[in-house]
Design brief:
Elements lengths: L11 H33 L4 H50 L2 H7 L1 H26 L1 H16 L1 H48 L1 H6 L3 H27 L1 H26 L4 H42 L23 E8 L9 E8 L4 E6 L5 H7 L8 E6 L2 E2 L5 H6 L1 E4 L8 E2 H5 L8 H10 L3 H5 L8 E2 L8 H13 L5 E5 L7 H14 L4 E5 L3 H4 L4 E6 L2 E6 L1 H7 L1 H10 L2 H5 L1
Parallel strand pairs: 3-10, 3-11, 6-9, 9-10
Antiparallel strand pairs: 1-2, 1-4, 4-5, 7-8, 11-12
Protein backbone atom coordinates (compact mmCIF):
# COMPACT_ATOMS: atom_id res chain seq x y z
CA UNK A 1 0.00 0.00 0.00
CA UNK A 2 2.94 2.33 0.63
CA UNK A 3 3.59 2.56 -3.12
CA UNK A 4 0.18 4.20 -3.58
CA UNK A 5 0.76 6.98 -1.01
CA UNK A 6 2.12 9.11 -3.86
CA UNK A 7 -1.50 9.61 -5.01
CA UNK A 8 -2.24 11.41 -1.71
CA UNK A 9 0.35 14.15 -2.41
CA UNK A 10 -2.18 16.63 -3.91
CA UNK A 11 -4.14 16.40 -0.65
CA UNK A 12 -1.37 17.05 1.89
CA UNK A 13 -3.33 19.84 3.61
CA UNK A 14 -6.48 17.72 3.96
CA UNK A 15 -4.43 14.74 5.19
CA UNK A 16 -3.06 16.90 8.01
CA UNK A 17 -6.15 18.95 8.96
CA UNK A 18 -8.49 15.93 8.98
CA UNK A 19 -6.55 13.82 11.52
CA UNK A 20 -5.77 16.93 13.64
CA UNK A 21 -9.50 17.65 13.92
CA UNK A 22 -10.13 14.03 14.85
CA UNK A 23 -7.35 14.25 17.43
CA UNK A 24 -8.99 17.31 18.98
CA UNK A 25 -12.26 15.38 19.20
CA UNK A 26 -10.44 12.44 20.82
CA UNK A 27 -8.76 14.70 23.43
CA UNK A 28 -12.10 16.27 24.33
CA UNK A 29 -13.69 12.82 24.55
CA UNK A 30 -10.93 11.61 26.87
CA UNK A 31 -11.49 14.55 29.23
CA UNK A 32 -15.22 13.91 29.63
CA UNK A 33 -14.99 10.93 32.10
CA UNK A 34 -12.58 12.95 34.30
CA UNK A 35 -15.03 15.87 34.37
CA UNK A 36 -17.80 13.39 35.18
CA UNK A 37 -15.76 12.16 38.16
CA UNK A 38 -15.28 15.77 39.33
CA UNK A 39 -19.01 16.47 39.04
CA UNK A 40 -19.82 13.38 41.14
CA UNK A 41 -17.14 13.95 43.76
CA UNK A 42 -17.31 17.75 44.06
CA UNK A 43 -20.85 18.46 42.94
CA UNK A 44 -23.24 15.60 43.55
CA UNK A 45 -21.67 14.26 46.76
CA UNK A 46 -21.21 17.81 48.11
CA UNK A 47 -24.70 18.85 46.82
CA UNK A 48 -23.10 21.83 45.02
CA UNK A 49 -25.64 22.62 42.26
CA UNK A 50 -23.78 25.66 40.77
CA UNK A 51 -20.66 23.50 40.35
CA UNK A 52 -22.69 20.79 38.60
CA UNK A 53 -24.24 23.35 36.21
CA UNK A 54 -20.89 24.99 35.50
CA UNK A 55 -19.14 21.71 34.75
CA UNK A 56 -22.19 20.47 32.82
CA UNK A 57 -21.99 23.59 30.62
CA UNK A 58 -18.29 22.90 30.07
CA UNK A 59 -19.11 19.33 29.01
CA UNK A 60 -21.75 20.63 26.57
CA UNK A 61 -19.23 23.08 25.09
CA UNK A 62 -16.64 20.30 24.74
CA UNK A 63 -19.21 18.03 23.08
CA UNK A 64 -20.13 20.82 20.60
CA UNK A 65 -16.46 21.45 19.74
CA UNK A 66 -15.93 17.71 19.34
CA UNK A 67 -18.90 17.49 16.98
CA UNK A 68 -17.60 20.38 14.85
CA UNK A 69 -14.11 18.84 14.73
CA UNK A 70 -15.60 15.49 13.74
CA UNK A 71 -17.67 17.00 10.90
CA UNK A 72 -14.62 18.91 9.61
CA UNK A 73 -12.62 15.67 9.58
CA UNK A 74 -15.47 13.84 7.78
CA UNK A 75 -15.52 16.53 5.10
CA UNK A 76 -11.76 16.35 4.46
CA UNK A 77 -11.80 12.54 4.57
CA UNK A 78 -14.47 12.48 1.86
CA UNK A 79 -12.51 14.94 -0.29
CA UNK A 80 -9.26 13.01 0.05
CA UNK A 81 -10.74 9.55 -0.51
CA UNK A 82 -12.75 10.57 -3.57
CA UNK A 83 -9.87 12.59 -5.01
CA UNK A 84 -7.45 9.73 -4.33
CA UNK A 85 -9.80 7.27 -6.08
CA UNK A 86 -10.24 9.55 -9.09
CA UNK A 87 -6.51 10.15 -9.48
CA UNK A 88 -5.69 6.47 -9.04
CA UNK A 89 -8.30 5.36 -11.58
CA UNK A 90 -7.01 7.93 -14.07
CA UNK A 91 -3.44 6.69 -13.62
CA UNK A 92 -4.42 3.03 -13.90
CA UNK A 93 -6.43 3.74 -17.06
CA UNK A 94 -3.57 5.78 -18.52
CA UNK A 95 -1.13 2.96 -17.73
CA UNK A 96 -3.43 0.30 -19.21
CA UNK A 97 -3.71 2.44 -22.36
CA UNK A 98 0.08 2.31 -22.71
CA UNK A 99 0.21 -1.49 -22.51
CA UNK A 100 0.55 -3.63 -25.59
CA UNK A 101 -1.99 -6.21 -26.73
CA UNK A 102 0.21 -8.92 -25.22
CA UNK A 103 0.30 -7.20 -21.80
CA UNK A 104 -3.48 -6.78 -21.72
CA UNK A 105 -4.00 -10.37 -22.84
CA UNK A 106 -1.80 -11.54 -19.97
CA UNK A 107 -3.64 -9.54 -17.28
CA UNK A 108 -7.13 -10.21 -18.65
CA UNK A 109 -9.85 -7.70 -19.49
CA UNK A 110 -12.23 -8.79 -16.71
CA UNK A 111 -9.47 -8.67 -14.10
CA UNK A 112 -8.45 -5.17 -15.19
CA UNK A 113 -12.08 -4.03 -14.97
CA UNK A 114 -12.36 -5.35 -11.41
CA UNK A 115 -9.08 -3.75 -10.39
CA UNK A 116 -10.04 -0.31 -11.66
CA UNK A 117 -13.47 -0.49 -9.98
CA UNK A 118 -13.77 -2.83 -6.95
CA UNK A 119 -10.15 -2.67 -5.85
CA UNK A 120 -9.98 1.12 -6.10
CA UNK A 121 -13.26 1.39 -4.17
CA UNK A 122 -11.73 -0.73 -1.40
CA UNK A 123 -8.70 1.56 -1.27
CA UNK A 124 -10.95 4.64 -1.18
CA UNK A 125 -12.66 3.23 1.89
CA UNK A 126 -9.27 2.53 3.48
CA UNK A 127 -8.12 6.12 2.84
CA UNK A 128 -11.31 7.52 4.40
CA UNK A 129 -10.85 5.31 7.45
CA UNK A 130 -7.15 6.24 7.59
CA UNK A 131 -8.01 9.91 8.04
CA UNK A 132 -11.06 9.41 10.25
CA UNK A 133 -10.13 6.57 12.58
CA UNK A 134 -6.54 5.37 12.30
CA UNK A 135 -5.26 8.15 14.57
CA UNK A 136 -8.40 8.51 16.69
CA UNK A 137 -8.97 4.86 17.67
CA UNK A 138 -5.41 4.08 18.88
CA UNK A 139 -5.17 7.51 20.54
CA UNK A 140 -8.44 6.94 22.45
CA UNK A 141 -7.30 3.45 23.40
CA UNK A 142 -3.83 4.49 24.61
CA UNK A 143 -5.11 7.77 26.09
CA UNK A 144 -7.86 6.00 28.04
CA UNK A 145 -5.31 3.54 29.45
CA UNK A 146 -3.03 6.44 30.50
CA UNK A 147 -5.94 8.33 32.10
CA UNK A 148 -6.98 5.14 33.89
CA UNK A 149 -3.41 4.66 35.12
CA UNK A 150 -3.39 8.25 36.44
CA UNK A 151 -6.62 7.62 38.33
CA UNK A 152 -5.61 4.24 39.77
CA UNK A 153 -2.45 2.46 38.71
CA UNK A 154 -3.27 -0.89 40.33
CA UNK A 155 -6.62 -1.28 38.56
CA UNK A 156 -5.09 -0.22 35.23
CA UNK A 157 -2.67 -3.18 35.41
CA UNK A 158 -5.65 -5.43 34.62
CA UNK A 159 -6.14 -3.52 31.36
CA UNK A 160 -2.47 -3.82 30.50
CA UNK A 161 -2.58 -7.57 31.12
CA UNK A 162 -5.34 -7.95 28.51
CA UNK A 163 -3.32 -6.16 25.78
CA UNK A 164 -1.17 -9.17 24.70
CA UNK A 165 -4.31 -11.30 24.39
CA UNK A 166 -5.82 -8.71 22.06
CA UNK A 167 -2.57 -8.63 20.03
CA UNK A 168 -2.70 -12.41 19.55
CA UNK A 169 -6.30 -12.19 18.35
CA UNK A 170 -5.35 -9.52 15.77
CA UNK A 171 -2.38 -11.55 14.54
CA UNK A 172 -4.54 -14.66 14.11
CA UNK A 173 -7.24 -12.86 12.10
CA UNK A 174 -4.80 -10.97 9.84
CA UNK A 175 -2.67 -14.04 9.19
CA UNK A 176 -5.67 -16.20 8.26
CA UNK A 177 -7.82 -13.70 6.37
CA UNK A 178 -5.26 -11.83 4.22
CA UNK A 179 -4.56 -14.68 1.72
CA UNK A 180 -8.27 -15.48 1.58
CA UNK A 181 -9.10 -11.91 0.50
CA UNK A 182 -6.63 -12.28 -2.39
CA UNK A 183 -8.30 -15.55 -3.42
CA UNK A 184 -11.69 -13.86 -3.16
CA UNK A 185 -10.62 -11.10 -5.58
CA UNK A 186 -9.25 -13.67 -8.04
CA UNK A 187 -12.53 -15.61 -7.96
CA UNK A 188 -14.40 -12.33 -8.43
CA UNK A 189 -12.31 -11.85 -11.61
CA UNK A 190 -13.47 -15.29 -12.77
CA UNK A 191 -17.11 -14.34 -12.18
CA UNK A 192 -16.60 -11.11 -14.16
CA UNK A 193 -15.00 -13.09 -17.00
CA UNK A 194 -17.94 -15.52 -17.13
CA UNK A 195 -20.42 -12.65 -17.12
CA UNK A 196 -18.56 -10.91 -19.92
CA UNK A 197 -18.52 -14.08 -22.02
CA UNK A 198 -22.22 -14.75 -21.45
CA UNK A 199 -23.40 -11.21 -22.09
CA UNK A 200 -21.31 -10.71 -25.23
CA UNK A 201 -22.04 -14.22 -26.53
CA UNK A 202 -25.69 -14.45 -25.55
CA UNK A 203 -26.81 -14.99 -29.18
CA UNK A 204 -24.41 -17.90 -29.68
CA UNK A 205 -25.39 -19.45 -26.34
CA UNK A 206 -29.07 -19.33 -27.22
CA UNK A 207 -28.48 -20.52 -30.77
CA UNK A 208 -26.77 -23.68 -29.46
CA UNK A 209 -29.23 -24.11 -26.55
CA UNK A 210 -26.39 -23.93 -24.03
CA UNK A 211 -28.22 -21.73 -21.52
CA UNK A 212 -28.45 -24.56 -18.98
CA UNK A 213 -24.72 -25.34 -19.32
CA UNK A 214 -23.75 -21.69 -18.90
CA UNK A 215 -26.02 -21.36 -15.88
CA UNK A 216 -24.27 -24.33 -14.31
CA UNK A 217 -20.84 -22.82 -15.05
CA UNK A 218 -21.92 -19.57 -13.41
CA UNK A 219 -23.49 -21.32 -10.42
CA UNK A 220 -20.31 -23.35 -9.86
CA UNK A 221 -18.09 -20.26 -9.99
CA UNK A 222 -20.52 -18.30 -7.82
CA UNK A 223 -20.70 -21.09 -5.22
CA UNK A 224 -16.90 -21.19 -5.15
CA UNK A 225 -16.83 -17.42 -4.57
CA UNK A 226 -19.50 -17.77 -1.87
CA UNK A 227 -17.54 -20.51 -0.06
CA UNK A 228 -14.45 -18.30 0.03
CA UNK A 229 -16.49 -15.29 1.20
CA UNK A 230 -18.15 -17.35 3.94
CA UNK A 231 -14.80 -18.77 5.05
CA UNK A 232 -13.13 -15.37 5.31
CA UNK A 233 -16.31 -13.95 6.85
CA UNK A 234 -16.24 -16.57 9.61
CA UNK A 235 -12.64 -15.70 10.45
CA UNK A 236 -13.30 -11.94 10.37
CA UNK A 237 -16.48 -12.40 12.42
CA UNK A 238 -14.41 -13.83 15.28
CA UNK A 239 -12.61 -10.53 15.79
CA UNK A 240 -15.42 -8.46 17.35
CA UNK A 241 -16.80 -11.08 19.78
CA UNK A 242 -13.31 -12.18 20.87
CA UNK A 243 -12.29 -8.55 21.45
CA UNK A 244 -15.52 -7.84 23.32
CA UNK A 245 -15.10 -10.99 25.43
CA UNK A 246 -11.55 -10.08 26.46
CA UNK A 247 -12.48 -6.50 27.36
CA UNK A 248 -15.69 -7.46 29.19
CA UNK A 249 -13.72 -10.04 31.18
CA UNK A 250 -11.29 -7.24 32.07
CA UNK A 251 -14.22 -5.00 33.12
CA UNK A 252 -15.63 -7.75 35.39
CA UNK A 253 -12.26 -8.24 37.07
CA UNK A 254 -11.85 -4.44 37.48
CA UNK A 255 -15.32 -3.97 38.99
CA UNK A 256 -14.79 -6.91 41.31
CA UNK A 257 -11.45 -5.48 42.47
CA UNK A 258 -12.86 -1.94 42.70
CA UNK A 259 -15.57 -3.17 45.07
CA UNK A 260 -12.97 -3.99 47.74
CA UNK A 261 -11.28 -0.60 47.28
CA UNK A 262 -14.59 1.29 47.63
CA UNK A 263 -15.42 -0.61 50.82
CA UNK A 264 -12.05 0.32 52.26
CA UNK A 265 -12.57 3.96 51.20
CA UNK A 266 -9.45 4.09 49.02
CA UNK A 267 -11.40 4.97 45.83
CA UNK A 268 -14.34 7.37 45.46
CA UNK A 269 -17.54 6.67 43.49
CA UNK A 270 -16.59 9.26 40.86
CA UNK A 271 -13.26 7.58 40.14
CA UNK A 272 -14.94 4.19 39.62
CA UNK A 273 -17.52 5.71 37.25
CA UNK A 274 -14.77 7.51 35.31
CA UNK A 275 -12.72 4.30 35.26
CA UNK A 276 -15.66 2.33 33.82
CA UNK A 277 -16.17 5.08 31.21
CA UNK A 278 -12.54 4.79 30.17
CA UNK A 279 -12.88 1.02 29.91
CA UNK A 280 -15.95 1.51 27.69
CA UNK A 281 -13.97 3.92 25.51
CA UNK A 282 -11.17 1.37 25.23
CA UNK A 283 -13.67 -1.38 24.33
CA UNK A 284 -15.32 0.75 21.62
CA UNK A 285 -11.91 1.77 20.28
CA UNK A 286 -10.79 -1.85 20.11
CA UNK A 287 -13.95 -2.76 18.18
CA UNK A 288 -13.14 0.08 15.75
CA UNK A 289 -9.55 -1.18 15.50
CA UNK A 290 -10.91 -4.67 14.80
CA UNK A 291 -13.00 -3.36 11.92
CA UNK A 292 -10.06 -1.32 10.67
CA UNK A 293 -7.94 -4.47 10.60
CA UNK A 294 -10.52 -6.13 8.32
CA UNK A 295 -10.77 -3.03 6.07
CA UNK A 296 -6.99 -2.66 5.75
CA UNK A 297 -6.49 -6.38 5.17
CA UNK A 298 -8.90 -6.14 2.23
CA UNK A 299 -7.21 -2.91 1.08
CA UNK A 300 -3.80 -4.58 1.27
CA UNK A 301 -4.98 -7.33 -1.09
CA UNK A 302 -6.49 -4.72 -3.43
CA UNK A 303 -3.33 -2.59 -3.32
CA UNK A 304 -1.22 -5.61 -4.28
CA UNK A 305 -3.46 -6.22 -7.31
CA UNK A 306 -3.31 -2.57 -8.39
CA UNK A 307 0.48 -2.45 -7.93
CA UNK A 308 0.69 -5.57 -10.09
CA UNK A 309 -0.90 -3.57 -12.93
CA UNK A 310 1.11 -0.37 -12.36
CA UNK A 311 4.38 -2.31 -12.17
CA UNK A 312 3.89 -3.90 -15.58
CA UNK A 313 6.47 -2.38 -17.88
CA UNK A 314 4.93 -2.02 -21.36
CA UNK A 315 6.50 -4.63 -23.59
CA UNK A 316 6.37 -2.10 -26.43
CA UNK A 317 8.55 0.83 -25.41
CA UNK A 318 7.68 4.20 -26.94
CA UNK A 319 10.38 6.25 -28.62
CA UNK A 320 9.98 10.02 -28.38
CA UNK A 321 12.87 10.85 -30.73
CA UNK A 322 11.94 13.24 -33.50
CA UNK A 323 12.65 11.37 -36.73
CA UNK A 324 10.39 13.20 -39.16
CA UNK A 325 13.37 15.04 -40.63
CA UNK A 326 15.33 11.90 -41.52
CA UNK A 327 12.60 9.95 -43.32
CA UNK A 328 13.87 8.71 -46.69
CA UNK A 329 11.28 9.61 -49.34
CA UNK A 330 12.87 7.17 -51.80
CA UNK A 331 12.65 4.21 -49.43
CA UNK A 332 9.87 1.60 -49.71
CA UNK A 333 6.74 2.44 -47.78
CA UNK A 334 6.89 -0.80 -45.78
CA UNK A 335 9.70 -3.31 -45.56
CA UNK A 336 9.84 -6.57 -43.60
CA UNK A 337 13.38 -7.82 -42.94
CA UNK A 338 13.60 -11.44 -41.80
CA UNK A 339 10.61 -10.97 -39.48
CA UNK A 340 9.56 -13.77 -37.15
CA UNK A 341 6.88 -13.49 -34.48
CA UNK A 342 5.31 -15.61 -31.74
CA UNK A 343 2.60 -14.57 -29.27
CA UNK A 344 4.60 -16.19 -26.46
CA UNK A 345 8.15 -17.37 -26.09
CA UNK A 346 6.81 -20.80 -25.15
CA UNK A 347 4.61 -21.15 -28.24
CA UNK A 348 5.47 -21.79 -31.88
CA UNK A 349 6.09 -18.75 -34.06
CA UNK A 350 3.12 -17.48 -36.09
CA UNK A 351 5.32 -15.82 -38.74
CA UNK A 352 8.69 -17.20 -39.82
CA UNK A 353 11.48 -15.29 -41.58
CA UNK A 354 9.24 -12.93 -43.57
CA UNK A 355 11.03 -10.57 -45.94
CA UNK A 356 9.10 -8.35 -48.33
CA UNK A 357 9.11 -4.83 -49.79
CA UNK A 358 5.90 -2.84 -50.31
CA UNK A 359 6.13 0.35 -52.36
CA UNK A 360 4.34 3.65 -51.86
CA UNK A 361 0.84 3.71 -53.38
CA UNK A 362 0.68 -0.06 -53.92
CA UNK A 363 -2.40 -2.11 -53.17
CA UNK A 364 -1.38 -5.36 -51.55
CA UNK A 365 -3.63 -8.37 -51.05
CA UNK A 366 -2.99 -10.96 -48.35
CA UNK A 367 -4.49 -14.39 -48.84
CA UNK A 368 -4.13 -17.67 -47.03
CA UNK A 369 -5.93 -20.30 -45.04
CA UNK A 370 -7.30 -19.61 -41.56
CA UNK A 371 -4.43 -19.30 -39.07
CA UNK A 372 -1.80 -18.68 -41.72
CA UNK A 373 -0.74 -15.36 -40.09
CA UNK A 374 -2.50 -12.73 -42.22
CA UNK A 375 -3.91 -10.65 -39.35
CA UNK A 376 -0.68 -11.03 -37.40
CA UNK A 377 1.24 -9.69 -40.42
CA UNK A 378 -0.75 -6.44 -40.54
CA UNK A 379 -0.92 -6.07 -36.72
CA UNK A 380 2.86 -5.87 -36.55
CA UNK A 381 3.00 -2.75 -38.75
CA UNK A 382 1.35 -0.35 -36.21
CA UNK A 383 3.27 -2.13 -33.38
CA UNK A 384 0.29 -3.72 -31.70
CA UNK A 385 2.86 -6.45 -31.08
CA UNK A 386 6.64 -6.29 -31.37
CA UNK A 387 8.47 -8.67 -33.67
CA UNK A 388 10.32 -11.55 -32.04
CA UNK A 389 13.09 -11.41 -34.61
CA UNK A 390 14.01 -9.12 -37.52
CA UNK A 391 12.72 -5.59 -38.16
CA UNK A 392 9.93 -3.68 -39.90
CA UNK A 393 10.64 -0.38 -41.63
CA UNK A 394 8.15 2.34 -42.58
CA UNK A 395 9.53 5.04 -44.90
CA UNK A 396 12.98 3.57 -44.36
CA UNK A 397 12.83 3.92 -40.54
CA UNK A 398 12.54 1.04 -38.09
CA UNK A 399 9.08 1.28 -36.50
CA UNK A 400 10.74 0.92 -33.06
CA UNK A 401 12.40 4.30 -33.65
CA UNK A 402 9.06 6.05 -34.16
CA UNK A 403 6.98 7.76 -31.54
CA UNK A 404 4.05 5.29 -31.40
CA UNK A 405 1.48 8.07 -31.73
CA UNK A 406 3.15 9.45 -34.86
CA UNK A 407 3.54 5.97 -36.33
CA UNK A 408 -0.13 5.19 -35.86
CA UNK A 409 -1.13 8.58 -37.26
CA UNK A 410 0.25 7.32 -40.57
CA UNK A 411 -1.94 4.22 -40.47
CA UNK A 412 -5.69 3.73 -40.83
CA UNK A 413 -6.92 0.37 -39.57
CA UNK A 414 -10.19 -1.48 -40.05
CA UNK A 415 -10.08 -4.51 -37.72
CA UNK A 416 -11.70 -7.89 -38.33
CA UNK A 417 -14.37 -7.25 -35.73
CA UNK A 418 -16.29 -4.10 -36.58
CA UNK A 419 -16.62 -2.12 -33.36
CA UNK A 420 -18.61 1.09 -33.00
CA UNK A 421 -18.94 3.35 -29.96
CA UNK A 422 -22.01 4.88 -28.37
CA UNK A 423 -22.79 8.29 -29.87
CA UNK A 424 -23.89 9.43 -33.31
CA UNK A 425 -22.78 8.06 -36.66
CA UNK A 426 -20.94 11.33 -37.33
CA UNK A 427 -19.08 11.06 -34.01
CA UNK A 428 -18.05 7.49 -34.82
CA UNK A 429 -16.69 8.45 -38.23
CA UNK A 430 -14.89 11.44 -36.64
CA UNK A 431 -12.90 9.07 -34.44
CA UNK A 432 -10.47 8.93 -37.36
CA UNK A 433 -9.96 12.71 -37.27
CA UNK A 434 -11.62 14.87 -34.64
CA UNK A 435 -11.60 18.23 -36.46
CA UNK A 436 -13.27 17.17 -39.70
CA UNK A 437 -16.17 19.07 -41.25
CA UNK A 438 -19.54 17.62 -42.22
CA UNK A 439 -18.40 17.49 -45.84
CA UNK A 440 -15.34 15.41 -44.91
CA UNK A 441 -17.53 13.03 -42.92
CA UNK A 442 -19.94 12.63 -45.82
CA UNK A 443 -17.06 12.15 -48.28
CA UNK A 444 -15.55 9.40 -46.12
CA UNK A 445 -18.97 7.72 -45.87
CA UNK A 446 -19.31 7.83 -49.67
CA UNK A 447 -15.92 6.17 -50.12
CA UNK A 448 -16.97 3.47 -47.65
CA UNK A 449 -20.29 3.01 -49.46
CA UNK A 450 -22.10 3.99 -46.26
CA UNK A 451 -23.69 7.26 -47.36
CA UNK A 452 -26.48 5.42 -49.14
CA UNK A 453 -27.94 3.74 -46.05
CA UNK A 454 -27.10 6.64 -43.70
CA UNK A 455 -29.09 9.07 -45.87
CA UNK A 456 -32.17 6.85 -45.56
CA UNK A 457 -32.11 6.97 -41.76
CA UNK A 458 -34.59 9.44 -40.13
CA UNK A 459 -31.79 11.35 -38.38
CA UNK A 460 -29.11 10.74 -40.98
CA UNK A 461 -25.61 11.26 -39.63
CA UNK A 462 -27.06 12.20 -36.22
CA UNK A 463 -28.53 8.72 -35.75
CA UNK A 464 -27.54 7.28 -32.38
CA UNK A 465 -25.34 4.19 -32.32
CA UNK A 466 -26.18 1.75 -29.52
CA UNK A 467 -23.49 -0.09 -27.56
CA UNK A 468 -21.22 -1.92 -29.99
CA UNK A 469 -23.39 -0.84 -32.93
CA UNK A 470 -26.04 -3.48 -32.25
CA UNK A 471 -28.67 -1.41 -34.08
CA UNK A 472 -26.80 -1.91 -37.39
CA UNK A 473 -26.20 -4.96 -39.54
CA UNK A 474 -22.76 -6.52 -39.97
CA UNK A 475 -22.26 -4.95 -43.39
CA UNK A 476 -23.35 -1.50 -42.18
CA UNK A 477 -20.95 -1.68 -39.23
CA UNK A 478 -18.09 -2.67 -41.53
CA UNK A 479 -18.75 0.26 -43.85
CA UNK A 480 -18.86 2.69 -40.92
CA UNK A 481 -15.54 1.42 -39.57
CA UNK A 482 -14.02 1.78 -43.06
CA UNK A 483 -15.28 5.40 -43.18
CA UNK A 484 -13.67 5.97 -39.78
CA UNK A 485 -10.33 4.75 -41.15
CA UNK A 486 -10.29 6.61 -44.49
CA UNK A 487 -11.43 10.01 -43.18
CA UNK A 488 -7.91 10.84 -41.94
CA UNK A 489 -6.43 10.01 -45.37
CA UNK A 490 -3.66 7.85 -43.88
CA UNK A 491 -0.43 6.95 -45.66
CA UNK A 492 -1.16 3.27 -45.02
CA UNK A 493 -4.66 1.76 -44.97
CA UNK A 494 -5.09 -1.72 -43.51
CA UNK A 495 -8.34 -3.56 -44.24
CA UNK A 496 -8.26 -6.71 -42.14
CA UNK A 497 -11.01 -8.89 -43.66
CA UNK A 498 -13.24 -5.84 -43.33
CA UNK A 499 -15.57 -6.54 -46.26
CA UNK A 500 -16.59 -10.10 -45.39
CA UNK A 501 -20.19 -9.01 -44.67
CA UNK A 502 -20.51 -6.99 -47.92
CA UNK A 503 -22.09 -8.25 -51.08
CA UNK A 504 -19.85 -8.54 -54.17
CA UNK A 505 -21.24 -5.39 -55.84
CA UNK A 506 -20.70 -3.22 -52.74
CA UNK A 507 -17.28 -4.76 -52.22
CA UNK A 508 -16.29 -3.92 -55.81
CA UNK A 509 -17.60 -0.34 -55.46
CA UNK A 510 -15.67 0.04 -52.20
CA UNK A 511 -12.38 -1.10 -53.74
CA UNK A 512 -12.89 1.20 -56.72
CA UNK A 513 -13.63 4.22 -54.46
CA UNK A 514 -10.56 3.53 -52.28
CA UNK A 515 -8.39 3.21 -55.42
CA UNK A 516 -9.64 6.55 -56.74
CA UNK A 517 -9.00 8.42 -53.47
CA UNK A 518 -5.69 6.75 -52.67
CA UNK A 519 -3.17 7.71 -55.32
CA UNK A 520 -0.36 7.80 -52.75
CA UNK A 521 -2.04 5.61 -50.14
CA UNK A 522 -0.55 2.16 -49.57
CA UNK A 523 -3.42 -0.27 -49.06
CA UNK A 524 -3.14 -3.71 -47.47
CA UNK A 525 -6.24 -5.88 -47.88
CA UNK A 526 -6.58 -9.08 -45.86
CA UNK A 527 -9.34 -11.25 -47.27
CA UNK A 528 -10.59 -14.78 -47.73
CA UNK A 529 -12.23 -13.74 -51.02
CA UNK A 530 -10.13 -14.04 -54.14
CA UNK A 531 -12.33 -11.48 -55.93
CA UNK A 532 -11.46 -8.87 -53.29
CA UNK A 533 -7.71 -9.05 -53.87
CA UNK A 534 -7.61 -10.39 -57.43
CA UNK A 535 -6.79 -6.99 -58.98
CA UNK A 536 -4.25 -5.91 -56.35
CA UNK A 537 -0.84 -4.71 -57.53
CA UNK A 538 0.74 -7.52 -55.56
CA UNK A 539 -0.69 -10.52 -53.72
CA UNK A 540 1.08 -12.17 -50.77
CA UNK A 541 0.09 -15.77 -50.13
CA UNK A 542 0.76 -16.99 -46.58
CA UNK A 543 0.82 -20.60 -45.50
CA UNK A 544 1.50 -21.62 -41.89
CA UNK A 545 3.50 -18.45 -41.18
CA UNK A 546 5.61 -18.63 -44.35
CA UNK A 547 5.32 -16.76 -47.64
CA UNK A 548 4.10 -19.31 -50.18
CA UNK A 549 4.05 -16.86 -53.07
CA UNK A 550 4.23 -13.20 -54.11
CA UNK A 551 3.03 -11.69 -57.36
CA UNK A 552 0.04 -10.64 -59.42
CA UNK A 553 -3.00 -12.85 -59.86
CA UNK A 554 -1.85 -14.23 -63.20
CA UNK A 555 1.70 -14.85 -61.94
CA UNK A 556 0.49 -16.72 -58.90
CA UNK A 557 -1.90 -18.85 -60.93
CA UNK A 558 1.18 -20.14 -62.75
CA UNK A 559 3.67 -20.32 -59.88
CA UNK A 560 1.75 -20.91 -56.61
CA UNK A 561 -0.26 -24.10 -56.14
CA UNK A 562 -1.85 -22.92 -52.87
CA UNK A 563 -3.15 -19.76 -54.51
CA UNK A 564 -4.38 -21.67 -57.53
CA UNK A 565 -6.27 -24.15 -55.34
CA UNK A 566 -7.92 -21.32 -53.38
CA UNK A 567 -8.93 -19.57 -56.60
CA UNK A 568 -10.41 -22.68 -58.18
CA UNK A 569 -12.36 -23.40 -55.00
CA UNK A 570 -14.07 -20.00 -55.25
CA UNK A 571 -14.11 -19.16 -58.96
CA UNK A 572 -14.87 -20.98 -62.18
CA UNK A 573 -11.94 -21.82 -64.46
CA UNK A 574 -12.90 -18.97 -66.81
CA UNK A 575 -12.97 -16.42 -63.97
CA UNK A 576 -9.77 -17.74 -62.38
CA UNK A 577 -7.70 -17.58 -65.58
CA UNK A 578 -9.25 -14.40 -66.99
Amino acid sequence: MLNLIVFLKPYKKECIIGPVCKLIEAILELLLPTITALIINNGVDAQNAPYVLKMGGLMLLMATLGFCSSMTCQYYAARVSQGFGTTLRNNIFKHISSLSYADIDKLGTSSLTNRITNDVNQLQLAVAMLIRLVIRAPFICIGAIIMAMIMDFKLSLILLASTPVFGLILYFVINKSSPLYRKYQQKLDKIASLLRENLSGVRVIRAFSKIKNEKQRFYTANDDLTDTAVHVGKISALLNPMTTFVMNAAIIVILWSAGFHINSGRISHGVIIAFVNYISQILLSLIVVSNLVIIFTKASASAARINEVLEVVPSIADNSKCIENIIDSTAPKIEFKNVSFGYSTTLDTVLNDISIIIGKGETIGLLGSTGSGKSTFVNLIPRFYDVTKGSILVDGINIKDYDIHKLREKIGIVPQKALLFTGTIAENICWGKQDDSDNDIKEAAKIAQADEFISKLPNGYNTQVSRGGLNFSGGQKQRLTIARAVISKPDILILDDSSSALDFATDASLRKAIKQCSTNMTVLIVSQRVNTIKHADKIIVLDDGHIAGIGTHNELMESCKIYKDICLSQLSSEEAFS
